[in-house]
Amino acid sequence: MGDRQRISYLPVPERDEVPEGVSRLWDKAHEAFGFVPNVFKAQALNGDQFLAWWGYFNLLVNKEGHLSNADRELVAVVVSSVNRCTYCEVSHGAALREYTGDAVTADLVASNWRQAGLPEREYAMASYAEKLTLHPAEVTESDLEALRAVGLDDRQLVELVQVVGMFNLTNRVSTALGFVPNPEYHSTGRTTS
């Protein structure tokens, strides 16, 4: 089934070839997850750009924000599914399973969010994320009103737009360079019988 060892279309740098900030991030990731995400390794080819991307990504997705972690991961999976980004669909699907404790819904969101039985608020966010991803020129102020109608405030709206934008960027990088998700993501957030 192909070369499962390859994680990118481009060469992946060794530890001694990356800036110190990158190797520290790899160590933190390994300590937190038990592995270094392949996206961290593959993007480190341009270490300074990777660290700049990571700073903003980390702020939007991993820090306390105006949306919940589950909300942000839902948006990440919807955008990644629409863009058919394998790396982000799998890795953020794992995070969505972890934050919600609901592997079935997370899998359905990755496949077709409309069939996931999402509550009204989450459905509205997913719908907006899809529209902004596929038809950005058609997004209008009325789209924000639909989100306000389900309870999002202005700070949440800004964060939602930023997360959608971040995942569109990240999906394009990951897909264009052929990033392969770590095997660990496939079992994360799933219960075993």
TrEMBL record:
InterPro entries: AhpD-like, AhpD_core, CMD-like, Uncharacterised_peroxidase-rel. One of its GO terms (molecular function) is peroxidase activity. Residues 50-101 form the Carboxymuconolactone decarboxylase-like domain. Keywords: Oxidoreductase, Peroxidase. This is Peroxidase-related enzyme. Pfam families: CMD. It comes from Terrabacter terrae. NCBIfam families: ahpD_dom, peroxid_rel.
